[in-house]
Amino acid sequence: MRSMNELLAEVSRLHSPGPPAMAEELAAFERRVGWTLDPDLRAFYLYCNGAILFEDRKYGSPYGFLPLAKIDRARFAIYGEDSDQWGPAHLYALCDVRDGDYVALDVSRQEHGRYPLIDAFHSSFYEQTRHRQIASSLA
After folding, report:
1. For residue 58, with 0-12 CB atoms within 10 Å meaning exposed, 13-18 middle and 19 or more buried, which class applies?
2. Half-sphere exposure of 50 (CA within 13 A, CB side)
3. What is the pTM of this model?
4. Residue 69 and residue 61 in contact, taking contact as beta carbons nearer than 8 Å
5. Which of 16, 8, 72, 15 is nearest to 46 (CA)?
6. Which DSSP state fits 119?
7. Starting from the edge strand earliest in sequence, which strands make up the sheet with 132-135, in order?
8. CA-CA 20 to 30 A from 125: which of 13, 76, 114, 131?
9. What is the DSSP letter of 83?
């Protein structure tokens, strides 16, 4: 397994990272959402406040890690409503897949001090039994 520093270097080498977030932005984000960034997420956002992955000038990028200011509950990102009928409150959109789908963080639990990542598929997101973990952490 590669270290977070190696992965961050790869973001700069292969993708289009945004400028780093400032410590004040991280603190404001954590106050707004009511949970604390895990060590991998904190390192990522101090390195770059969002990133466009696999940028293709002709077709656009299929993936974009959201800047802190745009991270919100996945149900709001997908359906435009922050209501329990559209999914649980503990999943937050982290990466926009640009087709209505997202990669979400499950902030209700941690594995080894990290939040797991969930496939937030828009057409069945409100069905909680269909939330599939795709990684145990950002790293």
Report:
1. exposed
2. 15
3. 0.88
4. no
5. 8
6. E
7. 16-17, 51-53, 63-65, 91-96, 102-106, 117-120, 132-135
8. 114
9. -
Taking only Cα atoms into account, the Rg of the chain, rounded to an integer number of angstroms, comes to: 15
**What span, in angstroms and rounded, lies between the C-alpha atoms of 47 and 100?**
26
CB atoms within 10 A of CB 33: 16
Q: Looking at residue 125, what is its pLDDT?
A: 63
* N-to-C CA span, the chain: 9
The predicted-structure confidence for 39-83, as pLDDT tens digits, reads as follows 999 999 999 999 888 776 556 667 889 999 999 999 999 889 999
Compute the average pLDDT of residues 28-35. Answer: 98
Amino acid at 106: D
Task: Tell me the residue type at 7.
Answer: L
Q: Mean pLDDT over all residues of the chain? A: 88
Q: Which of 59, 136, 130, 69 is nearest to 101 (CA)?
A: 130
Residue pair 92/17 in contact by the 8 Å Cβ criterion: no
Question: Looking up tokens 């945004």, which residue turns up?
Answer: 18
